[in-house]
């Protein structure tokens, strides 16, 4: 029988197969300082353990604690970061996509883990990605309790990577935000996005690729390069929204994270059946990036609205007599906000100039109608 054991001199090693364990260890050392800042007092242990640990004894003081969890990634926005060789902001996109889904139900995000897969571990690049994740967690008051970096040679290119994350939060059962709180007469408050956030980049990249625009191209409307604009980090809302929820005299009935599917579809997910929200485009000016995407790609408006946030990253639904107080609190939090619409009963005569959106991602609840035109 032939001896299949490779010789020491010519055998295949893990390193020759494309996995550099030592580079992974260096990456961990480089990210330690960043991760140390994204902590909470409840975190037990340090970086490098097999599992992140979080002391849940504080939950004993809650009457009926409900855990909330979410997971997500960044999507094809990572292709922009790779092309620009700028990796320290993509973490805000990851954290925002995860923790801001948790706050929709009124929960406080507590801790998060991340996962980075790459074709080759470049310690400085991995550390830059992790530093952005940690900075975003710090800004959200969320502990980064662990993560994983995986080297996948042959599956991903040497300069390619992808990242994902998961987080857990908690809310009192009586404080869970659910569609049944929303009633006719409530107002819809829009919260400004920081730009494209992390959705629709397959469309955006296709538009500029077809036009032959490079990421280094200076765009007058942006006052900077195309790549810099496209890499604008996602605004992380969770900490500010928790502050809004806890504001005396403001009873938040619902929150909606405007991600894939656009404003109408995501708002419809948090409305009960029997009501319809009417949102007026005339209440806000679209940021320039959305106009440029539409003009360069000749993207039909319905497709644009079903794909991008168009300047509204989150929506809060509150009683009409509390809207001014809610807006004042948003101003204190440096969170641009405005009344964008109202909730009415579903059988109110619909407008002729807009379609009604109802049913999204398996949720058959209320309806949303977006009408009017954006100011120029």
From TrEMBL:
Organism the protein comes from: Mobilicoccus caccae
Assigned EC number: 6.3.3.1
Ranges where the PurM-like N-terminal domain occurs: 63-171
CDD domains assigned to the protein according to its UniProt record, in alphabetical order: PurM (cd02196)
Keywords: ATP-binding, Cytoplasm, Ligase, Nucleotide-binding, Purine biosynthesis
Start and end residues of each PurM-like C-terminal domain: 184-344
Annotated NCBIfam families: purM
Keyword ATP-binding recorded: yes
PANTHER family registered for this protein in UniProt: TRIFUNCTIONAL PURINE BIOSYNTHETIC PROTEIN ADENOSINE-3 (PTHR10520:SF12), TRIFUNCTIONAL PURINE BIOSYNTHETIC PROTEIN ADENOSINE-3-RELATED (PTHR10520)
Principal location class: cytoplasm
HAMAP family, sorted: AIRS (MF_00741)
Subcellular location per the Swiss-Prot or TrEMBL entry: Cytoplasm
Record's catalysed reaction(s): 2-formamido-N(1)-(5-O-phospho-beta-D-ribosyl)acetamidine + ATP = 5-amino-1-(5-phospho-beta-D-ribosyl)imidazole + ADP + phosphate + H(+)
Protein name: Phosphoribosylformylglycinamidine cyclo-ligase
Annotated pathway: Purine metabolism; IMP biosynthesis via de novo pathway; 5-amino-1-(5-phospho-D-ribosyl)imidazole from N(2)-formyl-N(1)-(5-phospho-D-ribosyl)glycinamide: step 2/2
Family in the record: Belongs to the AIR synthase family.
Record's keyword annotation contains Lyase: no
């Amino acid at each position: 029988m032939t001896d299949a054991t490779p010789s020491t001199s010519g055998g295949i090693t893990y390193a020759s197969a494309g996995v550099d364990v030592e580079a992974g260890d260096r990456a961990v050392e480089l990210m330690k300082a960043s991760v140390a800042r994204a902590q909470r007092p409840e975190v037990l242990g340090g970086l490098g353990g097999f599992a992140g640990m979080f002391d849940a004894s504080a939950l004993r003081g809650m009457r009926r604690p409900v855990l909330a969890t979410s997971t997500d990634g960044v999507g094809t926005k990572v292709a922009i970061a790779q092309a620009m060789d700028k990796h320290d902001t993509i973490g805000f996109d990851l954290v925002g996509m995860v923790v801001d889904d948790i706050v929709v139900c009124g929960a406080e995000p507590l801790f998060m883990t991340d996962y980075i897969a790459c074709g080759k571990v470049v310690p400085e690049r991995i550390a830059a990605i992790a530093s952005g994740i940690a900075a975003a967690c710090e800004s959200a008051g969320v502990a980064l309790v662990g993560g994983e970096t995986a080297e996948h040679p042959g599956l991903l290119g040497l300069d390619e990577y992808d990242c994902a994350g998961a987080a857990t939060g908690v809310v009192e059962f009586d404080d869970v935000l659910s569609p049944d709180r929303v009633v006719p007469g409530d107002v819809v408050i829009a919260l400004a996005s920081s730009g494209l956030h992390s959705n629709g980049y397959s469309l955006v990249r296709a538009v500029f690729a077809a036009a032959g625009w490079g990421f280094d191209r200076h765009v007058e409307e942006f006052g900077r390069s195309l790549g810099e604009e496209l890499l604008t980090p996602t605004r992380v809302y969770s900490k500010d929204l928790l502050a809004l929820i806890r504001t005396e005299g403001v009873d938040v009935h619902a929150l909606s994270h405007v991600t894939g599917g656009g404003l109408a579809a995501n708002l419809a997910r948090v409305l009960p059946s029997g009501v319809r929200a009417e949102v007026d485009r005339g209440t806000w000016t679209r940021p320039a990036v959305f106009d440029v995407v539409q003009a360069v790609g000749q993207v039909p408006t319905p497709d644009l609205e079903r794909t991008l946030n168009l300047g509204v990253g989150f929506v809060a639904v509150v009683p009409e007599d509390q809207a001014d107080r809610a807006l004042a609190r948003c101003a204190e939090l440096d969170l641009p906000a405005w009344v964008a619409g109202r909730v009415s009963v579903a059988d109110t005569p619909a407008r002729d100039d807009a379609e009604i959106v109802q049913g999204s991602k398996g949720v058959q609840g209320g309806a949303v109608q977006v009408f009017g035109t954006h100011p120029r």
